[in-house]
Design the sequence.
């Protein structure tokens, strides 16, 4: 990957922002060396590890990465026999502890059945060096002080040291409390000089205490003297201190040797923690940008949805859809310099570099990017003073280098191609350069203000024109990319808005060729059509989501039905078995009674006794409760007609019959969905009041069938109301009890107008918004009187 492209596209600034999210110097080192990869499999793995880390953040909110240090130099010194300092050993223990915490955290997370194979593989490499960590922590505290518990000898020496110090202080304090002390001492304190206890004596009384002079004040009036009576005690203290230091050095040497024994394990811990810090830094950065993981491909295909420039604040940046590499491999963005074209180039280039570096991109889920072997960018006004090159020459130097290397695995970004020279020659050169790069199969986006290039996309296969929208009302760019619409000059409109005389503007228009005027009109029409298409596309996506939700609800109901079907049958069978068992017992009792009567009365059984026994047998037969609906169904099989309201038994949903599609199947409308349903799965509910029964009412004077819904999406307000008026009359003539009017959501103006008309209509009984399965607030359901 070209270093120049990383700089021009500001990938270096992305690295600087990423550094803010690292928890250790190890992670920061990896970030500083971060460059995009050109290996497809490696890029996919980098994206997957970042996504796993993002999953951990979504679930847990944080990760235990504190206490990690770069201990590689400490390990190396211990291996060559060096004695580590207490602080260095504390850092080693802290890093070991952090590695254990991280290992436990990831393994516990994976135990929750959340798939994080890459992070888990990293954690499994960590060998928990508990013994080394505990040995260091038992000997040294967090501030780097060697503890008394480090060894028995050190504990004994420290006890002796404290006892001797107490005796020395006691003797000196008795001296400074003496009767003449206030006269002979500069201050009544005990202090230390050269690791020995001394007292401040005035110059003229230096001989009173004897002993050794260790220091004097700046004025020379005060001498710091070690009195003769405590010289021996101080000597003993020094001896103990030497022994203490030797013991400390022995302890440190022992811990250093212990560290050297685990060189390999410690190096692995450092490497793993560096990787984990780096991975979680990428995830934190993605979370801050509200980024998502792109789908990577190796086919040069790019599909970015609502992509944002990562270095522009979220509340200021304009998101754009950018498509390249499928139907077309070259995009030419034309139009005046409004400030949006270069941002579009940088957005695509920077998102590509970020994705190949394993970073998530600021775009919607489902966005797709390709892995390129090289990204070339000629962006910016670069005038080389050192080489005495003009802006045009400087650009051409870069373009020459690009043309030497570009191939079908390259992404090329040209900003203001051919600018800086004669417009006619510059446009011709730009077309020639684009032809050359396009011929080699590279993915190309170029910006230009040359009008000659507006026709470039129409004359070449695989090339698309585009522009950045400009709002003439506010005299500012909207920064919205319009694919398929070439840019147009707004000079006349801007001049008019700024107050230039109409006569001057009309005179200027007369100097412009008729072809140019026609092109501008065509572009204006394209822009309007594009906006309308985008609005309709959004509404279609809304309806698709509603349909998908209805489909999911129906699927869930079917699953619930089939899951409970067996248990319901089992319960019914058990209940039936109980009823039959009771009937059998009753029948057996009747038979026993008959036999008893025959025996006792010698077969002289009277008629009324037989009738009574027969009645008891009949009563023993199980009584089956039949539902009224089933009885009605058996008694009378309804004749279905188009427009009948029915219940679809398989989905437990209400619907309306549209037409009979075969001998035993009907097309049924459920909300906004139409589906084929077998007649046996339909339950008759009601039929619309009709003056005449026929398959579908025919409106007088019309040859077409009146539908159960009217779609007004894309209609203008006045035309839509005329259609509603005519449709309501047709529906009433067809005797429909209920119809649907689809007006979409949009701004709400059309919906309000339609509903206001319906409220005032004399034949309308009630109106309501559609339910979730009928289209929601984008549909109005009309019921007639």
Sequence:
């Amino acid at each position: 990957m070209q270093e120049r492209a990383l700089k021009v596209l500001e990938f270096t600034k992305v690295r600087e922002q990423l550094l803010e999210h690292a928890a250790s110097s190890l992670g920061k080192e990896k970030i500083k060396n971060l460059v995009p990869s050109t290996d497809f499999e490696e890029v996919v793995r980098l994206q997957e590890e970042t996504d796993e880390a993002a999953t951990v953040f979504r679930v847990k909110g944080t990760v235990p990465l504190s206490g990690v240090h770069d201990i590689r130099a400490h390990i190396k010194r211990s291996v060559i026999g060096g004695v580590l300092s207490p602080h260095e050993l504390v850092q080693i223990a802290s890093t070991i502890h952090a590695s254990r915490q991280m290992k436990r955290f990831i393994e516990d997370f994976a135990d929750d059945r959340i798939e994080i194979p890459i992070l888990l593989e990293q954690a499994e490499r960590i060998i928990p060096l508990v013994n080394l960590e505990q040995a260091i922590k038992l000997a040294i505290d967090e501030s780097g002080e060697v503890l008394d518990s480090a060894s028995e000898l050190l504990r004994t020496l420290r006890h002796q040291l404290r006892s001797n110090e107490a005796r020395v202080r006691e003797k000196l304090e008795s001296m400074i409390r003496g009767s003449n002390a206030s006269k002979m001492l500069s201050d009544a304190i005990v202090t230390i000089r050269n690791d020995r206890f001394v007292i401040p004596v005035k110059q003229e009384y230096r001989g009173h205490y004897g002993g050794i002079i260790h220091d004097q004040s700046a004025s020379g009036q005060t001498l710091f003297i070690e009195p003769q009576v405590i010289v021996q005690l101080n000597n003993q203290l020094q001896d103990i201190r030497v022994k203490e230091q030797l013991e400390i050095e022995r302890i440190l040497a022992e811990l250093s040797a212990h560290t050297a024994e685990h060189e390999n394990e410690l190096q692995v811990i450092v490497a793993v923690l560096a990787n984990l810090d780096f991975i979680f830094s990428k995830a934190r950065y993605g979370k801050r940008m509200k980024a998502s993981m792109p789908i990577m491909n190796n086919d040069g295909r790019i599909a970015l949805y609502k992509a944002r420039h990562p270095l522009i604040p979220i509340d200021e940046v304009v998101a754009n859809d950018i498509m390249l590499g499928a139907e077309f491999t070259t995009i030419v963005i034309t139009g005046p310099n409004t400030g949006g074209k270069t941002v579009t180039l940088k957005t695509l280039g920077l998102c590509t570099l970020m994705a190949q570096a394993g970073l998530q991109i600021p775009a919607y889920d489902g966005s797709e990017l390709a892995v390129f072997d090289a990204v070339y960018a000629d962006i910016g006004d670069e005038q080389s003073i050192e080489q005495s090159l003009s802006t045009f020459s400087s650009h051409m130097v870069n373009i020459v280098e690009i043309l030497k290397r570009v191939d079908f695995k390259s992404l090329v970004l040209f900003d203001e191609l051919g600018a800086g020279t004669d417009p006619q020659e510059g446009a011709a050169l730009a077309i020639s350069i684009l032809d050359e790069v396009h011929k080699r199969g590279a993915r190309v986006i170029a910006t230009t203000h040359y009008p000659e290039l507006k026709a470039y996309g129409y004359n070449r296969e695989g090339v698309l024109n585009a522009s950045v929208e400009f709002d003439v009302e506010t005299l500012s760019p909207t920064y919205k990319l319009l694919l398929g619409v070439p840019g147009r000059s707004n000079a006349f409109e801007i001049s008019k808005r700024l107050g230039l005389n109409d006569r001057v503007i009309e005179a200027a228009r007369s100097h412009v060729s008729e072809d140019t005027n026609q092109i501008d009109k065509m572009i204006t029409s394209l822009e309007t059509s594009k906006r309308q298409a985008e609005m309709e596309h959004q509404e279609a996506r809304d309806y698709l989501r509603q349909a998908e939700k209805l489909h999911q609800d129906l699927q869930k109901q079917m699953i619930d039905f089939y899951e409970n079907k067996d248990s319901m049958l089992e319960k019914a069978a058990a209940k039936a078995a109980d009823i039959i068992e009771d009937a059998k017992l009753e029948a057996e009792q009747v038979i026993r009674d008959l036999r008893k009567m025959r025996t006792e009365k010698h077969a002289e059984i009277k008629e009324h006794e037989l009738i009574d026994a027969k009645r008891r047998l009949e009563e023993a037969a199980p009584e089956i409760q039949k539902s009224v609906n089933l009885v009605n169904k058996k008694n009378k099989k309804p004749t279905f007609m188009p427009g009948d309201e029915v219940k679809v038994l398989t989905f437990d949903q209400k619907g309306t019959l549209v037409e009979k599609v075969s001998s035993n199947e009907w097309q049924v409308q459920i909300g906004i969905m139409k589906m084929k349903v077998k007649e046996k799965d339909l339950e008759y509910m009601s039929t619309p009041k009709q003056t005449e029964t026929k398959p579908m009412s025919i409106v007088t004077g019309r040859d077409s069938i009146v539908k159960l819904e009217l779609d007004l999406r894309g209609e203008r307000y006045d035309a839509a109301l005329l259609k509603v008026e005519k449709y309501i009359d047709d529906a009433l003539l067809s005797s429909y009890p209920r119809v649907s009017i689809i007006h979409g959501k949009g701004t709400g103006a059309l919906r309000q107008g339609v509903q206001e008309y319906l409220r005032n209509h004399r034949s309308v009984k009630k109106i309501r918004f559609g339910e979730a399965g009928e289209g929601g607030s984008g549909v109005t359901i009309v019921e007639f009187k």
User: Anything to note?
Assistant: The first strand starts at residue 191 and ends at 193. Confidence is low (pLDDT under 50) at residues 383-388, 624-635, 689-703. The longest helix spans residues 514-601.
